[in-house]
Predict the structure.
Amino acid sequence: MPLQTTIFIVDDSSIIRERILEKLGMLPMTSTVLQAKDYQSANQIIDKEQPDIAILDIQLPDGSGIDLLSKIKNMRKETVVIMLTNYPYSIIRKRCDELGADYFFDKSTEFEKVLEVLETRQTAVR
């Protein structure tokens, strides 16, 4: 029986969330997918759920994915956090690294790497 994985996608762009969902549909894994489009909704979900993998946008309309990263890692260090952003600046990358982000990808040039990470993670738990 495949291992159940909970994946949490936080991005204000419905297009990005749909692209990630499409990619997840290609993987041979059983997943529960949670979604949020803003900081407040994401914060409420984090209080109730403990995702195995979180894919976080940094720039949200009402807050920062960096704050969500910090909260997730403080609650459950083993959650794999992927920062997916349009702001791949070195100072932001450094801050995410300091807070425990497992991956940091530029949406415009490294989007496909999210799928690679998810495939690798699924293979590792089998």
